[in-house]
């Protein structure tokens, strides 16, 4: 998968999550899946929660363009990230519609998305840090077990995913990937680890979920 | 914001709001850009949208064109219809305006094509 060009200004760099190892692992995992199944499934609607610079959804849009048309929606709580994503998508000549919102709060629940992607704030922190107003803190502060933000969206994924839909989630070891896979069984979703990488101080995983 | 995205937005997260769907649109700046027409894609998207909401949204923006009141039969073969839907869903964009909650009247500003749906703490 071609890596999108991302150009962040100094102000954006201070406030927006810069494409990092986790972003790239997610892109690599999507690339493998593109060849395995996505290009045949021809997803018509794709959603990314917490788009940041827009690097991941833009990469997917660029790659899918060769196989099918799809609509891309990205959300973020951070207005500077929303703007950065618009810029990234335009720079790479793809279309991403961006909406500023808290997680999935303002999406009308209907089973429309064939792909949902989430690289959440996953770092283990004090619970109080999740409430920090600073936009850059919101890119990483995950609270207890690093799960406080991601746990809020898990119960709603099945309300937004289409019947054949796939949910891609980036986590680290401390988030306990196996327990997340267990948790999703409650909603009749089966999950597996489709990629992992060890970098300094972090063991990253990409999980993929679909209906049983 | 394209109307396909509008079709999926709600204000249900507002305190006291029951459905919060569909949101009204008051547009001050609307842009029309050409997007490549893919009939197969549009036919796949139609079952995923609320068609009556699309009609209303297109009305707000003055872009109803020849969209019929209801989805006709055999959509896949009806290229004229698919083209109209394609135009309304993907080519018309709100650059500046407000989304308005149908129940509370709360406004959500759209700037540079990005709706801001964030609420204040006392609104949730
Ligand atoms: C680890 S960064 C990932 C950014 C980008 N997707 C990437 O992979 O490079 C997490 C993103 O989630 C966003 N975020 C955090 N809390 C959020 C919330 N409650 N609602 C929406 N987005 C949120 C942050 O602003 C940030 O952009």
UniProtKB/TrEMBL annotation, chain A:
The lineage of its organism: Eukaryota, Metazoa, Ecdysozoa, Arthropoda, Hexapoda. Heterodimer; heterodimerization with TRMT112 is required for S-adenosyl-L-methionine-binding. It comes from Trichogramma kaykai. Belongs to the eukaryotic/archaeal PrmC-related family. GO terms for cellular component: nucleus. InterPro entries: DNA_methylase_N6_adenine_CS (IPR002052), Euk-Arch_PrmC-MTase (IPR052190), PrmC-related (IPR004557), SAM-dependent_MTases_sf (IPR029063), Small_mtfrase_dom (IPR007848). Keywords: Methyltransferase, Nucleus, S-adenosyl-L-methionine, Transferase. One of its GO terms (biological process) is methylation. The keyword Nucleotide-binding does not apply. Its main location: nucleus. It is found in: Nucleus. Pfam families: MTS. Coiled coil: none annotated. It comes from the Eukaryota. It catalyses: L-lysyl-[histone] + S-adenosyl-L-methionine = N(6)-methyl-L-lysyl-[histone] + S-adenosyl-L-homocysteine + H(+); methylarsonous acid + S-adenosyl-L-methionine = dimethylarsinate + S-adenosyl-L-homocysteine + 2 H(+). GO terms for molecular function: protein-glutamine N-methyltransferase activity. This is Methyltransferase HEMK2. Methyltransferase that can methylate proteins and, to a lower extent, arsenic. Catalytic subunit of a heterodimer with TRMT112, which monomethylates 'Lys-12' of histone H4 (H4K12me1), a modification present at the promoters of numerous genes encoding cell cycle regulators. Catalytic subunit of a heterodimer with TRMT112, which catalyzes N5-methylation of Glu residue of proteins with a Gly-Gln-Xaa-Xaa-Xaa-Arg motif. Methylates ETF1 on 'Gln-185'; ETF1 needs to be complexed to ERF3 in its GTP-bound form to be efficiently methylated. Residues 36-125 form the Methyltransferase small domain.
From TrEMBL, chain B:
Belongs to the TRM112 family. InterPro entries: Trm112, Trm112-like. This is Multifunctional methyltransferase subunit TRM112-like protein. It comes from Trichogramma kaykai. It comes from the Eukaryota. Pfam families: Trm112p. CDD domains: Trm112-like.
